[in-house]
Design goal:
- It is a single chain.
- The protein has 377 residues and is α/β, with parallel strands linked by helices.
- The protein is built from eight helices and 15 strands.
- It has a domain of 175 residues: P-loop containing nucleotide triphosphate hydrolases (Rossmann fold, 3-Layer(aba) Sandwich).
- Helices cover 41% and strands 23% of the residues.
- It starts with a strand and ends with a strand.
Length: 377
């Protein structure tokens, strides 16, 4: 899989840009703030409907413009597909595939798959549980686009249930009749059904990632430290987790019943995949708080490399994006990472200076300066 052409209109700093790409390595080189990351961000957005830099769409639209358009020709097994997204802040994005509109933007998920390395990846190890939940869920959607619907359904149920908890809790504190309580029972069942589907998928994913992360960590760090991934559930430490959906749903309902008084008091749902975490272990200790800076980088890279290997094993090797990563790594990790990713069908690299791109990733070069792109022959 590779992107053969990228077209941007009013995306970030670009009023308009047309860029032909080829398989192999392409390095976007230029000082910080000149627009090189905007190019690979656009590619990643087409694959995930999300940015690795911002949490909302508004910053993606060039100042003064109403909307942005990202369009790419994706080649898979020799067959090209044209995918287009129109990004309008405050409104639902619109999408086209081969110039034909599709009902929902998320129907383009799966046409292009990417694995993106960026300095922000250090948060996978050192950051909050939300960073690791997002990592798991984004990978789930990349493997099975239908999981985007499961996530959306769960978020909808959670929002509605939290609203009911707030209103019912307020009524009880004011010694009024809490008419929302019977309705809350219905939403408990919805939460259990959607939550069990999401947790089961995460558990299956962690089992697939665990050996791949260990192998990737050893390759990147050139060391023998053992790694482990442990899924930590809000269902309780005494609950034996299993991907069995029916059993998980029953465990959800039991945990929700126990936590109901606390939930009514606080007005939020205290049980569910939105409260879970992925514990990363290095040796016998959690990586967060104990791993060195270099070890943390190796673990973050291992998570991404394992994701790439898993997606490739599904069929259709993803596009690899390395956004300003090499400047963050020591020489050893830089060379080992380059050697690991160089065989990929397409690798897109950004770097402030050409010297930051290892020799193993020699290929096409595009200089980026003040929003202008120039191919270097």
């Amino acid at each position: 899989m590779h992107v053969s052409h990228l077209s941007l209109t009013d995306f970030r700093s670009y009023a308009a840009v047309e860029l032909a790409l080829e398989p192999g390595v392409t390095a976007f080189v230029g000082p910080n703030g000149q627009g090189k990351t905007n190019l690979v961000e656009a590619v990643g957005y087409l694959a995930t409907l999300d940015s690795h830099r911002v949490s909302t769409d508004a910053p993606l639209v060039r100042q003064g413009a109403e909307r942005a358009v990202v369009r790419a020709r994706v080649v898979r097994d020799g067959r090209p597909t044209l995918v287009e997204l129109e990004i309008t802040p405050g409104r639902a994005n619109r999408a086209r595939v081969n110039a034909s509109p599709v009902p929902r933007a998320r129907e383009v998920l799966g046409i292009l798959r990417t694995v993106l390395f960026a300095p922000e990846d250090l948060a996978l190890v050192k950051g909050d549980p939300s960073d690791r939940r997002r990592f798991l869920d984004d990978l789930l959607v990349a493997r099975q686009p239908r999981m985007a619907g499961v996530r959306a359904d769960y978020d909808r149920v959670l929002k509605q249930r939290n609203a009911l908890l707030k209103s019912a809790g307020a009524a009880l504190r004011q010694r009024r009749s809490a008419s929302d309580l019977p309705t809350l029972d219905v939403w408990d069942a919805h939460l259990a059904r959607q939550g069990s589907e999401l947790v089961a998928a995460r558990l299956e994913l962690v089992d697939l990632l665990r050996p791949r992360v260990g192998s990737a960590y050893a390759s990147v760090s050139h060391g023998a430290a053992d790694t482990d991934l442990v899924y930590v559930s809000s269902l309780g430490a005494d609950v034996a987790l299993t991907p069995d959906r029916d059993l998980l749903a029953a465990q959800f309902l039991e945990a929700v019943a126990k936590s109901r008084p606390h939930e009514l008091d606080r007005g939020v749902s205290l049980v569910g995949p939105h409260r879970d975490d992925l514990l990363l272990r290095l040796g016998t200790m959690p990586a967060k708080g104990y791993a060195s800076h270099g070890e943390s980088w190796s673990f973050a890279l291992a998570l991404r490399l394992a994701s790439f290997e898993l997606l490739a094993s599904d069929g259709g090797e993803p596009v690899l994006i390395l956004d300003d990563v090499f400047a963050e790594l020591d020489v050893g990790r830089r060379e080992r990472l380059a050697a690991l990713v160089s065989p990929a069908e397409q690798v897109l690299v950004t770097a402030a200076v050409a010297q930051d791109v290892p020799e193993a990733l020699t290929g096409a070069r595009i200089d980026v300066m003040a929003g202008e792109v120039h191919r270097v022959r």
